[in-house]
Amino acid sequence: MNQLVNISIGNLFHRSLQACVHCIGLVAMLWSFHSFAADVWKPDWFTADAPLDVTVNDTFINVYNAPGRGYPIFHVIERGETITLLKMRTDWIKIKTVRGLEGWIKRSDIALTLGPDGTALDFADTTHADYLADRFELGAAFGDFDGAKSMNLNAGYRFTKNISTELRLAQNTGQYSDSQIVALALLLQPFPDWRASPYIGVASGTLKTMPSSTLVQVEDRKDQLLQASLGVYVHITGRFFLRAEYTNDYILTSRNTNEEVNEWKVGFNVFF
Amino acid sequence: MESRFQRIFLAASLASVLVFINAPTFAADEKEKKDDGELGKIITPDLERRHIKEADLDSEDFELGVYYGVLNIEDFGSNAVVGASLSYHITEDFFAQANYGTSETKKTSYELLSGGVDLLTNDQRKLNYYNISLGYNVLPGQVYIWDKWHFNTAVYLVAGAGNTHFAEKNYFTYNLGAGFKFYATDWFLVDLSMRGYSFSHELFGNSKKTGNLESRLGIAIFF
Lengths: 272, 223
Fold this sequence. Notes:
- The structure holds two protein chains of two kinds.
- Chain A is an alpha+beta fold.
- Chain A is 16% helix and 51% strand.
- Chain A has helices at 2-40, 128-132, and strands at 52-56, 60-64, 73-78, 82-89, 92-97, 102-106, 113-114, 136-145, 148-158, 163-173, 177-188, 196-211, 221-237, 240-252, 259-271.
- In chain A, the strands form three sheets. In chain A, strands 8-9-10-11-12-13-14-15 form an eight-stranded antiparallel barrel. A five-stranded antiparallel sheet of chain A has the order 6-5-4-1-7, with no helix packed on it. Chain A has a two-stranded antiparallel ribbon with strand order 2-3.
- In chain B, 21% of the residues lie in helices and 53% in strands.
């Protein structure tokens, strides 16, 4: 009897213990799920990102005190040293050493480092072809629009290596009238890998002409415009291109005859 | 006897729960231990073994600035000018810069001396300009303010074109200039710059080419 009571008390004790263990287990499970959830839905805006630590895998890397080749090298980081990448400007990367020293290294020196996973970092090659593969393009050009001085802006998007579209804005300032062009163009670049790469393009848009009010009393007018262009991209450095273009503008006027205008422009373009 | 077994089991199960709770910490410790070998010296022990891509790194190629200065418009006096500039640094050498400035011109000497003659209305005296220019950092350098204080500097040349809106008309304007950048930190700078703006107008009858000098002091940030 005494033994029976003992067993039943033992059982009771055992069961309550089990419940207790399950309870703790459940809490632990919830806790671990919570920490997992926190990892997945981490609010990136307020918490600091994990530092981008890399290890030097070459004899040494020069550290400059500003992002430019003309600034002094004031420190050298050696093989095996860990550095934190802070930010990038043009072809330079700001780093911080373990001892808290900050400086700039060349972007190309990233190839001499290894990431936390022991592999090389995924940085695009800064060659001509890579920048052509970038999707967006922004440029400015100056030129001559039938005797008027023209100021042009263009924003482009590249569908493939060869075909791109662009929005053209131009402000032409002449002696007797000013005009503005808004046009959408389609460009074909058959040899994008060439250093000087020719292209042809067609565009359609509107031309708004505003005669000089002080000289002649004529109303502003708006005409349809068709453009055919022939031009060339010349790679200068990195993502930077020179661009020269000849455009034949065909203006569909409301008068009896249509107008034809020759336009020349030279400018620079940047790929993103 | 039984209760002793129970206590042993209890201790074991509690221990296992504790291990479960602290599993990540123990695992991390083990990982560190593993890397302590020869390999660990080359590949630094790091809790997060991720792959770094270029996109993970913040890039800071844009520079936004405001400036204030004196713009001398030929025949129309020297006037305060205020403006803003946005630059995109293409390489360490080249940058593209868009500027917009506004000013109000004064009366010409003829208007002042003759008395009641007004060549332009008040609205027409307002002048604003924009331009897109290409800059080149020609002289990178440093200044030493005290034994322990040095700052980075850059001297740059800039040239471009744009339009000046003056007397209700646009004038195509070339600009040429140079400036000195003083980097207080690597993202905040003071910019002292001189620009010459050249355009032709017919306000006095015949076409006249003008050269207009702007001296300006500004601040800018990189972002």
